[in-house]
Design goal:
about 45% helix; 2 helices
Length: about 170
């Protein structure tokens, strides 16, 4: 689809250039026709010259109309291609991180099939196990400083939001 999008964009640009050339040709043909009409009225040019100028003007007008139709057609193709790309794009309703991808790009999928597992990063939760001895010192809403072993030089602030009811009997 991305290749089709590039082709459609190129087609629109080519159609615009063609329409510009056709419009310039029409203006030139109309100017030439008007000049020949004035000469004909002054009896300086012949019927055949006037008829040729009118025919050239009509052909130029038709050429411009045809170019405008091709432009509309290529713009419609571009719009359709963008719509198809939009149908194949996946956007989460929140900022997050992809944790796991269940399908590969290009795989056929069905409605309701899980494609990816995404973690919401707006509000990250960290589960911490602690000894029973520390429970008396913990309170919901208490600020905390988190130091991840992989990022020991970059500690970050947190808040205790819940104390779970489970106790590991082996550890206390």
């Amino acid at each position: 689809l991305l290749q089709q999008l590039e082709q459609a964009q190129s087609g629109v640009e080519a159609a615009r250039q063609e329409l510009n050339r056709a419009a310039a040709g029409r203006l030139d043909a109309e100017t030439q026709c008007a000049r020949v009409e004035r000469l004909f009225e002054q009896r300086v040019s012949s019927d055949s010259e006037r008829d040729s100028a009118r025919a050239a003007r009509d052909i130029a007008q038709a050429s411009e109309q045809s170019a405008a139709a091709r432009l509309r057609e290529t713009e419609a193709l571009l719009s359709f291609t963008r719509e198809q790309i939009g149908k194949r794009s996946i956007n989460a309703p929140f900022g997050g991180m992809v944790l796991r991808r269940q399908v590969e790009p290009g795989d056929a999928v069905t409605a309701g099939q899980a494609l990816v597992t995404v973690a919401e990063m707006e509000r990250t939760e960290i589960y911490v196990e602690t000894d029973e001895n520390n429970l008396a010192r913990l309170r919901v809403g208490q600020p905390a400083l988190v130091i991840a072993p992989a990022f020991a030089a970059k500690p970050f602030s947190a808040e205790l939001v819940r104390i779970g009811p489970n106790v590991d009997a082996e550890r206390g």
